[in-house]
Task: structure prediction
Amino acid sequence: MNKNTLAKPIIALSLLFSLAVASSAQAKATFNEVDILDGFIDVQENGAIGVNDDLNNVVLWCDGAMPVRVDIIDGKVDVNEDGIVNFGDDLSSCDLNDEDTVNGVAGVPTRNRVDIVDGIVDVDQDGNLNEILQDDLQNVQLYVP
Result:
């Protein structure tokens, strides 16, 4: 038997296995819809920020660079994932996409550039944190692999 004849099924099986693994990994990724209220992330979307507003392993794209993985703890962003939100938890120019109604069409994605300063989302990127209504976004889609 020819060596090339034996190699073809093995290559085909390894390709099938790779596709199966890739598709199962993609199936586990989710988008979590959240709201941002006065700079805090309302994971529960109940209109209040509290101890249940947590989400782990959120992927953000900032400064046009590689993705950054963060955690959300009590509505604040833990950039370095050390379990504590403090003054070092900063990112600039992060893309957050929301699905709002635009010109009467529901679910139209809109890209928003935001900064994260001390774990708080600065939606309008003006350096002032916790601004009522100015640091708000609705229906933000967060990617969790």
